[in-house]
C-alpha cells in the first residue's frame, strides 16, 4: 500500500507537484497520464526517494520514504524502477542484468565480483520465466530486441521483490505491437504477484486498454482519478489542456470508454 499525502515539489520558482494525494493498493495497476512537464517523472522519483519533496509524506507499507535511504545497498528497497530506455548493462548477460535486482543485501565484495548465491540465480531465472525470456539468459543485453530488453527490465524489477514497481514511460520507444506485449507482461505480473504498479504513459489508448485505474496529472495537480471507462473527451482535455487531437474521440469510442462525451466529435473531421 502506497500512501502519498500533500506531496509538493518545486524546482526554483516552478511548482512541479502541487499537493498531490494518492493511495495505491497492493496489486493495483495504476496509469498516470499527463502532458510533458506535468510532473509524472518527478512524482515517481519522489516515491522512490530519488528526489526530496518540499512538503508531504510518502509511505510504503507504513514505512516513510526517505531520500537518505537511497545509497544503502544493504537494505532492500520497496520500489523498483523500469525506465523508458531499459537501462540494461549492455555487456552483461540477460541473467546478470536481472541479478542486478538482487544486489541489495549482498556484500560489496560479492557484488564487485558478481558472485551471486545459487538461490538468487534461481530467483532471477524464475523472473525471466515470467516474461518468457529464460532461454535468453546467457545472451548479452545488447543482443536482444528493444521489447525483449524492456521485458528484462521488468524481470530485473521483479527480482528486487519490491512492494511497488514504478514504470516511467516504459513503452515510449517501442512500436505499438511490442508496446502492448510489454504492457501485457507488466499487468499480468502486477496481478499475479500483488505488486502495485504505477506506470507513467503518454498514450490514452494504452491507459484505457491496460489501466485498472487512471490518474490524470496536469500542471502538477491530479485532475482525474478513476477507472479508465470514466475517461471522456472532456476529461482528456482537462488532463491535456489545449490539445486538439480528434483521434482521442476515436480511441475512446473504439475502446468502449466513456461514451456520451466520446460520441461528440472533438473537431471537424473527428
Ligand atoms: N532536476 C530538475 N531540475 C529542474 N527542473 C526539473 C528537474 N526535473 C524536472 N524538472 C522540471 O519539472 C517539470 C516536470 O518534469 P517531469 O519530468 O516530472 O515531467 P513529466 O510529466 O514526466 O514530463 P515528460 O512526460 O516529458 O517526461 C518540467 O518543467 C521539468 O523541466
TrEMBL record:
Keyword NADP: no
Pfam family, one: ABC_tran
Gene Ontology molecular function: ABC-type phosphonate transporter activity; ATP binding; ATP hydrolysis activity
Coiled-coil ranges (or none): none
PROSITE patterns associated with the record: ABC_TRANSPORTER_1, ABC_TRANSPORTER_2
A GO CC annotation given for this chain: membrane
Domain ABC transporter: 2-244
Tree of life domain: Bacteria
Record has DNA damage as a keyword: no
PANTHER family in the cross-refs: AMINO ACID IMPORT ATP-BINDING PROTEIN (PTHR43166), PHOSPHONATES IMPORT ATP-BINDING PROTEIN PHNC (PTHR43166:SF6)
Official protein name in the record: Phosphonate transport system ATP-binding protein
Amino acid at each position: 500500500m502506497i500512501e502519498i499525502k500533500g506531496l509538493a515539489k518545486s524546482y526554483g520558482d516552478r511548482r512541479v507537484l502541487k499537493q498531490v494525494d494518492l493511495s495505491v493498493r497492493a496489486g493495483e495497476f495504476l496509469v498516470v497520464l499527463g502532458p510533458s512537464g506535468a510532473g509524472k517523472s518527478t512524482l515517481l522519483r519522489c516515491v522512490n526517494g530519488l528526489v526530496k519533496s518540499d512538503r508531504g509524506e510518502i509511505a510504503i507499507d507504513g514505512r516513510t520514504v526517505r531520500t537518505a535511504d537511497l545509497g544503502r545497498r544493504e537494505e532492500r528497497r520497496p520500489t523498483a524502477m523500469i525506465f523508458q530506455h531499459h537501462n540494461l548493462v549492455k555487456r552483461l548477460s540477460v541473467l546478470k542484468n536481472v541479478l542486478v535486482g538482487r544486489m541489495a543485501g549482498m556484500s560489496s565484495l560479492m557484488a564487485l565480483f558478481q558472485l551471486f548465491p545459487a538461490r538468487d540465480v534461481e530467483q532471477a531465472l524464475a523472473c525471466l520465466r515470467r516474461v518468457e525470456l529464460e532461454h535468453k539468459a546467457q545472451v548479452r543485453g545488447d543482443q536482444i530486441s528493444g521489447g525483449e530488453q524492456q521485458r528484462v527490465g521488468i524481470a530485473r524489477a521483479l527480482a528486487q521483490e519490491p512492494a511497488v514497481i514504478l514504470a516511467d514511460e516504459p513503452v515510449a520507444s517501442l512500436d505499438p505491437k511490442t508496446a502492448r506485449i510489454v504492457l501485457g507482461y507488466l499487468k499480468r505480473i502486477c496481478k499475479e504477484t500483488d505488486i502495485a504498479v504505477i506506470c507513467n504513459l503518454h498514450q490514452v489508448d494504452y491507459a484505457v486498454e491496460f489501466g485498472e485505474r487512471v490518474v490524470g496529472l496536469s500542471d502538477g495537480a491530479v485532475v482525474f482519478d478513476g477507472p479508465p471507462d470514466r475517461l471522456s473527451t472532456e476529461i482528456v482535455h482537462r488532463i491535456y489542456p489545449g490539445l486538439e487531437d480528434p483521434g482521442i474521440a476515436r480511441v475512446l469510442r473504439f475502446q468502449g470508454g466513456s461514451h456520451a462525451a466520446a460520441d461528440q466529435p472533438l473537431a471537424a473531421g473527428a
